[in-house]
Design goal:
- The chain is an all-alpha fold and about 190 residues long.
- It is about 65% helix and about 0% strand.
- The protein is built from eleven helices and no strands.
- It binds fe (ii) ion (2 copies).
- The site of one fe (ii) ion has 6 residues, from loops.
């Protein structure tokens, strides 16, 4: 595991978020190996995907505005959703990651997006199923993810959408687009 990244993350994240990030890094590595993806990129993206997670709403909005990140009605109401796109900016500027594929997977790890790349899918799922995660259905989603990445992703997207509906929260349109394009790809 990259010491520079780990030391830097220790200054940005609380203890639980750091152990979640290590869990995502290890899970992303396994998923990358199974799916013949770039293991190094998966480990880096997994480790630093939540680098902006502990930023205040004000800081997220400020960095988003400064960098031309679109703040739509959903992210204005739930600024925490910006920790993905803002995290990609921090990954580039402070962790010196310049690989677009890696930055993209950090950007979309919370919402998903249309036509997700293999690395996008790996990071989204690793975030969902890493060993510290404990919620109803996690066992089924974890099992599916290791068997077939698209099946796992479909279950995770469905679960997210159901969760959001049950709690009366807003659904980010990118999550719907992620699910639609996954269905179209699999037809
Ligand atoms: Fe996150
Ligand atoms: Fe996360």
């Amino acid at each position: 595991m990259n010491e520079f990244f780990l030391n830097k993350l220790e200054t940005m994240l609380d203890k639980d978020r750091l152990s979640h990030s290590i869990g995502v890094c290890e899970t992303a590595k396994k998923l990358a190996e199974i799916n013949n993806a770039d293991v190094k990129k998966a480990e880096i993206a997994g480790l630093i995907h939540d680098c902006a997670k502990c930023f205040s709403d004000e800081k997220l909005i400020e960095i988003a505005k400064k960098n031309g990140i679109e703040i739509d009605d959903v992210s204005r109401a739930q600024p925490n959703l910006l920790h993905g796109p803002v995290g990609a900016i921090i990954a580039k500027e402070e962790f010196l990651v310049d690989d677009e594929e890696t930055l993209n997977s950090i950007k979309y790890h919370t919402t998903g997006c249309e036509n997700m790349s293999l690395l996008d899918k790996i990071i989204y799922l690793a975030d969902y199923i890493e060993p510290n995660r404990d919620f109803p259905n996690v066992y089924d989603i974890r099992r599916a993810a290791y068997k077939n990445i698209d099946e796992g992703l479909m279950l995770a997207l469905n679960n997210t959408i159901e969760f959001v509906i049950k709690r009366g929260l807003l659904i980010d349109i990118k999550t719907i687009k992620a699910r639609n394009s996954l269905i179209i790809d699999c037809i």
